[in-house]
Structures are given as structure tokens and as C-alpha cells.
């Protein structure tokens, strides 16, 4: 996020974010449900989004350079998206059964992207990585995967290996290390991850 006011004090989370962080820590581990939230020194809690901007609970306005990790390509509150979602919400919010809408979207994507023959929709990036790892293992017949040292690829054990490291704990350039990203990660996970610098 980039604060509209460039004064140093304006970039600090305000009193309302601090109160929410204190409340959140009582009921949510580390006060938020997302481990990738920037905390310097504590998370900034958002009140609303407006196009390319966020407004935090303290009324500070920021240019949103993340847009929910690029999932909000149209920005926050984009009217055509809000109208379409509002129409669909009146027809129901979530189904265990398939719908024509998912086939419509799949056909549109397969038609527009030559490299795609079929597509599977998932709820999160972590789920997508889990399915990709399973598909790669089935296709290759191998259990090992390769991943970039220090890079975030979701919260699946094999995707997290090497994510928790920092330059001082990385291996040499010729031998990167799959540093466990959390206490209790099975040692066997590191045996199935080939780290790439």
C-alpha cells in the first residue's frame, strides 16, 4: 500500500487498527486470518475499498498495490462486477452441485487461452497448488517437486518448504535448503522438495 500522504507518521497503523489487533489476538492466532499480511509493527485493518484505493479503520487512504494479490484486477467496488454479483446472489449463494455458470466460464477461458484444454476451478491459490502438485506427481510418477527458495506458493506442506527461510538460513547457491516454515513440519517433506535458488 502506498499512503497518499507521504509524511512518515502517516504510514503507521492508527489507534483503531491497534484496538482491532488487540481484540483479534484474543480470538485469532496473531490477530488475523492471513499469514501474508504486512505487520510493521502491526497489521493495518481495512474499512473499505474504493477502486484502486483502500481506506483503513483510522480513515487513512492508500493506493492498493496488491489488490488482494492481483485477484481484483478491476479494483474495489467495480460497478459492473457488483451488479453481476448482486443479481447472482438473489439466485442463491453457494451450491454443492455444479451450475451452468461454471461451464460458461470454463468454455470462455478454454476458447481464449490456446494452451488450456480443460480447467478446474478451486477456492484458493493454495488449493490450486495442491492440485497442481498432485497432477504433476500423477503425470511424472515422481514424488519430488521443485520450488523456489524463499518464495510463497500457498500453505500446503510441500509448497511451504523453504518459504520460512531468510537469506541467512538459506543454503549455498549450489545447494539451497528446504527450511521448515513452521514448527512441527515433518522432516520427510524436505526430502520431497528440490529447492531452486
Which labels suit this protein?
single chain, 197 residues, alpha+beta, Aspartate Aminotransferase, domain 1
What do you see in this structure?
By secondary structure, the protein is of the alpha+beta class. It has two domains: 2-70, Alpha-Beta Complex (Aspartate Aminotransferase, domain 1); 125-196, no CATH class. 34% of the residues lie in helices and 11% in strands. The chain has helices spanning 15-27, 67-70, 79-89, 100-112, 125-140, 157-160, 187-191, and strands spanning 2-3, 46-50, 53-56, 61-63, 145-148, 193-196. The strands form two sheets. It has a four-stranded antiparallel beta sheet, with no helix packed on it. It has a two-stranded parallel ribbon with strand order 5-6. A hairpin with a 2-residue loop joins strand 2 (46-50) and strand 3 (53-56). The mean pLDDT is 88.
Mean pLDDT: 88
- Which regions contain 5 or more consecutive residues with pLDDT less than 50? none
Number of helices: 7
Structural class: alpha+beta
- Through-space gap between termini: 28 Å
- Gyration radius from CA atoms, angstroms: 21 Å
Number of strands: 6
Helix percent reads 25-40%
Largest sheet geometry = 4 strands, antiparallel
Please indicate the count of domains: 2
List the helices and strands and how they pair.
Elements: E1 2-3, H1 15-27, E2 46-50, E3 53-56, E4 61-63, H2 67-70, H3 79-89, H4 100-112, H5 125-140, E5 145-148, H6 157-160, H7 187-191, E6 193-196
Parallel strand pairs: 5-6
Antiparallel strand pairs: 1-4, 2-3, 3-4
Amino acid at each position: 500500500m502506498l499512503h497518499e500522504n507521504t509524511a512518515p507518521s502517516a504510514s503507521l497503523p492508527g489507534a483503531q487498527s491497534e484496538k482491532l489487533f488487540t481484540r483479534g489476538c484474543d480470538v485469532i492466532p496473531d490477530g488475523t486470518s492471513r499469514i501474508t499480511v504486512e505487520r510493521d509493527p502491526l497489521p493495518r485493518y481495512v474499512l473499505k475499498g474504493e477502486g484502486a484505493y483502500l481506506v483503513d479503520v483510522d480513515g487513512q487512504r492508500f493506493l492498493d498495490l496488491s489488490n488482494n494479490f492481483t485477484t481484483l484486477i478491476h479494483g474495489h467496488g467495480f460497478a459492473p462486477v457488483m451488479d453481476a454479483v448482486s443479481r447472482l446472489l438473489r439466485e442463491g449463494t453457494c451450491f454443492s452441485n455444479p451450475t451452468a455458470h461454471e461451464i460458461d466460464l470454463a468454455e470462455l477461458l478454454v476458447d481464449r487461452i490456446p494452451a488450456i484444454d480443460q480447467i478446474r476451478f478451486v477456492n484458493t491459490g493454495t488449493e490450486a497448488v495442491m492440485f497442481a502438485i498432485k497432477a504433476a506427481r500423477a503425470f511424472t510418477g515422481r514424488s519430488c517437486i521443485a520450488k523456489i527458495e524463499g518464495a510463497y506458493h500457498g500453505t500446503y506442506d510441500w509448497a511451504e518448504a523453504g518459504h520460512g527461510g531468510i537469506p541467512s538460513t538459506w543454503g549455498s547457491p549450489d545447494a539451497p535448503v528446504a527450511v521448515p516454515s513452521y514448527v512441527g513440519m515433518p522432516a520427510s517433506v524436505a526430502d520431497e522438495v528440490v529447492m531452486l535458488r
